[in-house]
Design brief:
By secondary structure, the chain is mostly beta strands. It has no helices and 23 strands. It is elongated, with a radius of gyration of 20 Å.
Length: 274
């Protein structure tokens, strides 16, 4: 496991492991490009100032960019957080979304009876901006905005989720490593007597932790879904840690919800359309 250390270089805040704690002295600004999220934080006298915006995911750089410089931000579009403390310690913590993400493969995918597959899915993380000593949360920002969707057999039964798309890759080498996304290995076993169409799969990301890998990528534990009957229900199992092929990792954040939903869950959409 990696031990976070402070970066005190006044010219650059480092790029590789962007979640490591760092210092922003009073009168300085930390400018960041973290995947599809652009933000700048200025440490002023008695307050912190934040400016943020999103860019298209297709234009997001593969490598995080963080630069510490002397000087302030422009006044337009600022958010101000009044803070009487003297600490200049800052931490970026990636968390998974606060709702499940309904994954839709870009092509039609079917799993025949008795078959099992592992897909490597990536879902956007949320950035928590915290001050250190004492710990104070300034704001949480989605690093990529997802649209809302309903998941359930009717408008009265189900849950509000986020909607995401995937190429349903089952080769890890084919999965792009994006700064703003965490990789989840999802294993699906179809023990039912009928073909399982993977049109929509409900991934319970609030139950998952986020880990930072040595290569700078983000991971979660593995998730397993086993369908045992001709229905949209499945047995849910969450591993204790990311897979071995994630390499050396460090825990960055825990799950938003306790794992009370482990067991039989509605995982697939067989009856409910858009």
């Amino acid at each position: 496991m990696e031990t976070p250390t402070m970066n005190n270089n006044p010219e650059s805040a480092g790029t590789g492991h962007w979640w490591l704690p760092r210092r922003v002295p009073s009168g300085h600004t930390l400018s960041c490009q973290l995947g599809s999220l652009t933000l700048a934080l200025h440490h002023a006298s008695g307050e912190w100032q934040l400016s943020s915006q999103h860019i298209d995911e297709a234009d997001a750089p593969e490598v995080p960019e963080l630069v510490l410089r002397a000087g302030a931000l422009e006044d337009e579009g600022l958010e101000r957080f009044l803070y009487a403390g003297s600490s200049d310690g800052l931490r970026f913590t990636p968390l998974l979304a606060d709702r499940s993400v309904v994954i839709r493969p870009r092509q039609l995918v079917y799993l025949p009876p008795g078959e099992e597959t592992t897909m490597y899915l990536s879902t956007p993380v949320t950035l928590r901006i915290e001050l250190d000593d004492p710990s104070v949360t300034l704001k949480e920002l989605p690093m990529l905005r997802l649209s809302d969707t309903w998941f359930g057999p009717s408008t009265r039964e189900g849950e509000l989720c986020y909607s995401g798309k995937t190429h349903a890759r089952h080769e890890l080498a084919e999965v792009p490593r994006r700064v703003h996304r965490a990789i989840t290995p999802l294993t699906i076993r179809n023990a039912a007597p009928t073909v399982l169409p993977l049109e929509k799969v409900n991934l319970p990301v609030p139950l998952l932790s986020v880990y930072g890998a040595a290569d700078g990528s983000l991971w979660t534990q593995g998730v397993s879904l086993q369908r045992g009957s001709d229905s949209d229900m499945a047995a849910l199992k969450i591993d204790d840690a990311p897979p071995a092929n994630a390499g050396e990792v460090s825990l960055l954040s825990g799950p938003r919800q306790a794992q009370s939903r482990a067991g039989l869950v509605r995982a697939f959409s067989l009856l409910f359309g858009d």
